[in-house]
Design goal:
This protein is an alpha+beta fold. It has 5 helices and 12 strands. The strands form 2 sheets. Strands 1, 2, 3, 4, 5, 6, 7, 8, 9 and 10 form a 10-stranded mixed β-sheet that branches. A two-stranded antiparallel sheet has the order 11-12.
Length: about 280
Amino acid sequence: MEKVNKDGLTEEEFLAAYNPGNYERPSVTVDMMLLRLKKDMSCLQILLIQRKNHPCIDEWALPGGFINIDESAYQAACRELEEETGLKDVYLEQLYTMSQPDRDPRMRVIDIAYTGLLPFHYEGQEKAGDDAKDAAWFDLVFTDEQMQFTNEQNGVAITYKLEKKTFKNGVLSIQNFIPVQESEDALAFDHEQIILEGLMRLRNKVMYCDVAFNLMPEEFTLPDLQNVYEMILGKDLYKANFRDKISDKVVKSGRKAKSVTGKRIADLYRYSIENDKY
């Protein structure tokens, strides 16, 4: 027997009479935080686009846009990424949902943020397109005190001070950071919060999985690998402790090369697929 509700309607009858206009409907967007290593491995870099229309005209932002009615959030992220930057076939992981009612001055907009890590050898060419005036890689500095984005070619330096704040979640007191603008320039919308969430997630993940290897070249030295871990964690690591931690994650390739971040010739290693813990 087909089930009916309290009004005696079957599901087919209920759907035929249903009026979506009875509820306000927010728009939904996606934004992508893409990270890569600078060629000299001196810092992480983040891809930003410069907006060419209101709101936040001329401000730098994460690549992204509105989700079409016939696509998933992931499909929209891939499409927007290619439209605005020319990048495609990039690994994306869903990061966070931004839902503050006033985050977009146009209307009620809920944003689904993604993070992606590009391999060291990635040769894709970013380009501005769609509603982006420019697309550029910014050097990223991330510590417990500061988050800074710098692009010397465009003469842009955007800085946020990170203030610690405690939030209650049930019986727990959780300490987190709040970005406070220090520079004249700022990122568009609430994208500094998205980036902070993404960097904190990455910092936490490298402690229990092998996510950092997504940034590395196919072959690498252990000093370079340690440098990347230190970059993400924002602190120096003891050489012996680090090598003990990653000893079962890497295998020697049988070749040697000069470290990118050092001056000595060292053994080259590869990531051990058998120990994949992403």
